[in-house]
Amino acid sequence: MTIKRNILLNPGPVTTTDTVKQALVVADICHREVEFTDLMQGVRMDLLKVVNADPEQYTSILFAASGTGAVEACLSSVLASEKKVLIINNGPYGQRMLDIARRYHIPSLEYQVDYDQPIAITEIELLLIQNNNIGAVAMVHHETSSGILSSLRPIGELCHKYGCEFIVDAMSSFAGVDIDVEREHIDYIISSANKCLQGMPGLAFVIAKKSALMQSKGRARSFYFDLHQQFYALETQREMPFTPPVQIIYALRQALNEFLAETLSGRIERYQRNYELLIKGFAKLGFTCLTPEDRASHLLAIIRFPGDQSYNFDEFHDYLFAAGFTIYPKKLSIPNTFRVACLGAIEPQDILRFFQSVATYMLKKTTQELISHV
Questions:
Q1: Taking residues 146-173, what's their average pLDDT?
Q2: CA–CA dist 159, 161 (Å, integer)
Q3: Rounded CA separation 157/163 (Å)
Q4: Which of 6, 60, 178, 319 is 20 to 30 Å from 374 by CA-CA measure?
Q5: 281 shares its domain with 234
Q6: Banded pLDDT at 365 (limits 50, 70, 90)
Q7: Range(s) of the domain holding residue 91
């Protein structure tokens, strides 16, 4: 079977290998069969390896959901009723955490910072001192509205110092950035199959510290997204309490095999090469990168179009899409910008081909403008 290969320069879903796509095509099987439950348990164990989580101390909990579903499961399940969650909001996905907490009437405290400003650790510590009923601090590791990667360890150390749990949304950094849950003092880390793991959409997961998870029993405010209930079913019955996305899990099994073969350092190096080519290529064509280099994830960047009053994102997107490349619209209110990412099964030669299409588009636009002035 020949499958067209599109290059997705958006932060998920991502370009996948043909072998991951082909892993979706399996014989129909009931999710309660030993063949499948063994495979799912292997996936759970291998997810721990990605962030150096000791299986004696940590466990992984799978959900049939988008990444937001796993964020909702975590936030709605772990807080005791008398505790607040401190949410660090430096972009739309931090805001989404706040929206989830408020929907469930979970007491929350917001620390807001502009996307281009660093998180002030001293201010976070002051909030923890002034509010002794904070039970958890939650933050987004890689804010894909901006390409900013925030440091985890200083905040994790504060959580450890003041006796609160640390919840990390690592949706677009898990398997693309070096994360160690013990080094960073992380109690819950959340991601999905279809980002840097290079699997398919439809499966999300929470990696939880067992000691914290055990204390959360009975706290869930949701039926479907009950984190402890989901864990208990996976541990005692070896299956999800609700029907799992069977084919998506087979695809994730293959994606994990490919990740382990490439290694985390190999994947980081490949993504880094792709990112450098993207930034250099855009600079040569007159575009500007607005993601601060000192805090860049090297996974995604905000790009500003050259000083062209007739810039039209949809037109630019559609031209590139027809050539087999996908770029992403802006998320922040910065004029004449769009986003590009380098997650997924993308190689440097794909980036070079992409710029051939970008250069052709720019030449076409310049020619059209010259003709219009004749």
A1: 97
A2: 5
A3: 10
A4: 319
A5: no
A6: confident
A7: 20-261
